[in-house]
Amino acid sequence: MKHVTIKDIAKELNLAVSTISRAFNDKYDIRPETKQTILSKAKEMGYRPNPFAQKLIRQRSMNIGIVIPEFIGSFFPEVIIGAQEVLFKAGYQVLITQSNECYKTEIENVELLEQNMVDGLIISLSHQTKNIDRYKELVSRGTPVVFFNRVNDELNTSKVLFDDYEWAFFATEHLIYQNYKKIFHLTGPANLSLTKNRLRGFLDAHKKHRLKVPDSHLIPSDFMLEDGERAAMKIIESENIPDAIFAAGDLTAIGAMKIFKKHGYKIPEDVAFVGFSEHTIAQHIDPPLTSVAQPTFEIGRTAAKLLIAQIENTGVFVPQTITLSGQLNIRSSSMKLT
Amino acid sequence: MKHVTIKDIAKELNLAVSTISRAFNDKYDIRPETKQTILSKAKEMGYRPNPFAQKLIRQRSMNIGIVIPEFIGSFFPEVIIGAQEVLFKAGYQVLITQSNECYKTEIENVELLEQNMVDGLIISLSHQTKNIDRYKELVSRGTPVVFFNRVNDELNTSKVLFDDYEWAFFATEHLIYQNYKKIFHLTGPANLSLTKNRLRGFLDAHKKHRLKVPDSHLIPSDFMLEDGERAAMKIIESENIPDAIFAAGDLTAIGAMKIFKKHGYKIPEDVAFVGFSEHTIAQHIDPPLTSVAQPTFEIGRTAAKLLIAQIENTGVFVPQTITLSGQLNIRSSSMKLT
DNA sequence: TTGTACGCGTTATCAC
DNA sequence: GTGATAACGCGTACAA
Question: Is the CB of A60 under 7 A from strand C?
């Protein structure tokens, strides 16, 4: 970290440091020739402005913190790539942290990022997160925060959402059109809004087609593969077997599928499956899993844009919620072959 | 970013700023009582040291840059988690960049990280990277760099490697023990050392068992799923069909498997498959793919430790190469059922 | 043991 | 148009 500074250039050229500084920030008057001399000399000496001195005086870190629950699977990495793309172009540095689906770690991450004086945060909640006091405090202090996908309704911030309701509706309707009648729903974690929305879509699709949904068709579950396995075990033990299952997450669906296959059920002849989120492995398992694909990169880009707008906004800030759309990738796990 | 500073505390307590500073850096003499007063007052006021002021005066950024070729798939994310774990504990900030397997982006990332004055770098090369001049320059300037997995032999830095030779040997031998005789090898990208090592392991296993390997058994390929598909097409068209294939990467194996299945070959009866790297989906595809698992988290932790040692090292620095071991996960893609 | 004063590299506000 | 000089927040030699 032994860098050339503006002082070095000033000495070399017998000019004042302030003049050198001006050469780089063209908001000041400076003779074009001297500017040129300085710029070429700077390049020759390999000058690079010290970002920490700039951050110190500008009172802005130009750092954005990202908090996601997990790294494994393609969803979050792709969102991050999308967000980085936009943030880098706007001159921001990105600090990525991952909570490992653990509430405690999540809060520690936020704290770490605050210590590093991030100008803003992009967050997706862990499925453990129930207590949102820390976030309320954050928001009320005026820290720009954008939540995406895993959000909490009580937090009044900008949000980037997927239209979970609509796509759960479509996914369910797809099963109904395929003539499946007894459709179960494996829900997501109770604390997340997306769980409620996907459930609502599931129910409304039934309502539209005048199909009843007894409570026994709704199985509380979670996003891990093991949760799907557990849910499937429970269903099989109950001896109340559905002819189709719509899971709130791909891994849940895959876990459940595994168990059903193991118990001799044919897919999709005996039980059909539809998942949610287009996990990398969805198209590679046997049979390939029908799944709702989300616009991952676009989610990241949108979150970044909203955050930058809020940070650089001078007027009154009004939280915005942007809802993006996706597509249903229909594969053989849900296609009746009759 | 309106933080409490040591000045505020000084004013509040009628003390000098230096005294406040001393309370936090216990290398100076300070009366225990005043220290206590300061510390409690600081906590009360919510004081947090400004990291940029510290970085500025300490002439060290406490930032570590990580450059990886891709985010998708579990290998690199897991390495990063391992590295972060160690680096965070040592007080370092981690800046993660991803080259998307593109040489140009990779170099831009390195440049970006340099501008941010990282104290050191952890790098895994893209499979496009052939020109390593920029890295040679980096190293010769004394910047601490640790490469892992995708390394280049000409760079004299610390490295964390997987014992590609040994595990390629074991993987091949596993096929031989299963009584496969005509084994093809889909190699990795030509510029990477690991490609040579895996090839060497493949050849030596044959040598040990006195089996010949004609050149036609070696198919140059790459790490993408599509590369595997292409390689498989080439093999099928040549009508010189192997009874087993050892691919240098899981995705390559999966792509090839897909094509062979599509053409009516039964796996593993007609053609057996072994991959490398234990991709997340390896165990979920049909049939589950035998693969060499690498100690991902440990690779990250080790790289981080080596880097910290080099950065904080005062004496003469000697580059170290640490080679880690793995395990072969045997699944049905390579088990003769006879 | 505590206070004073300077420097880290930069930008901004003055003079000239 | 250019040059001093004071900040930004912190660490530290030196004086008290």
Answer: no
Question: CATH assignment of B58-160+296-324?
Answer: 3.40.50.2300
Chains A & B: contacts with CB separation below 8 Å: 90
Closest CA to B124 of B332, B294, B336, B335: B294
Please give the protein residue whose CA is closest to the C1' of the nucleotide C1: B30
Chain A neighbors of B93, CB-CB under 8 A: 95, 116
CA distance A207 to chain B (A): 35
Interhelix angle for A32-45 vs A6-13, to 10°? 120
Q: A23: Cβ under 7 Å from strand D?
A: no
CATH number of A164-294: 3.40.50.2300
In a 3-state reduction of DSSP, which class is residue A194?
helix
Q: Which of A70-74, A128-132, B301-305 has the highest mean pLDDT?
A: B301-305
Nucleotides of strand D within 7 Å of the protein's CB atoms: 1-5, 7-13
* Residue A288 DSSP one-character state: P
Helix axes A193-208, A164-177, angle to 10 degrees: 40
For testing contact with chain A, the best of B48, B54, B63, B284 (most A CBs within 10 A): B284
> In chain B, where does the domain assigned CATH 1.10.260.40 lie?
6-49
Which residues from chain A sit within 8 angstroms of residue B99, using beta carbons?
Answer: none
A337 falls in which pLDDT band (50, 70, 90)?
A: low
Per-residue pLDDT band for B1 (boundaries 50, 70, 90) equals very low
pLDDT digits (tens, 9 = 90+) for A279-333: 877 887 888 999 999 999 999 999 999 999 999 887 788 999 999 999 999 999 9
How far apart are the CA of A211 and the nearest CA of chain B, in angstroms? 34
pTM recorded for the entire structure: 0.86
Please compute the mean of the pLDDT values over residues B239-250 and round it to a whole number: 96
**Tell me, what's the pLDDT at A3?**
82
Dist CA A196 CA A187 (whole Å): 8
Residue B288 is given by DSSP the state P
B203 vs A49: CA distance, rounded Å: 52
Pairing of β A290-293 and β A327-329: antiparallel
Å: B53 CA to D11 C1'? 10
pLDDT tens by residue, A139-186: 998 899 999 999 998 999 999 999 999 999 999 999 999 999 999 999
Residue with smallest Cα–C1' gap to C7? B57
Round to whole Å and give the CA distance between B9 and B17: 8
> According to the model, what pLDDT value does residue B196 have?
94
Q: Is A36 helix (H, G, I), strand (E, B) or coil?
A: helix
Q: Do A142 and A132 touch, CB atoms closer than 8 A?
A: no
Interchain proximity A281–B285, CB inside 8 Å: yes
* Smallest Cα distance from A151 to chain B, Å: 24
Q: Answer for the pair B66, B94: CB distance below 8 angstroms, yes or no.
A: yes
Q: Does domain B6-49 have CATH number 2.60.200.40?
A: no
Contact (CB, 8 A) for A65 and A121? yes
CATH 3.40.50.2300 segments of chain B:
58-160+296-324, 164-294
* Yes or no, beta carbons of B117 and A284 under 8 Å apart: no
**pLDDT digits over B184-201, tens only?**
999 999 888 899 999 999
End-to-end CA distance of chain A: 69
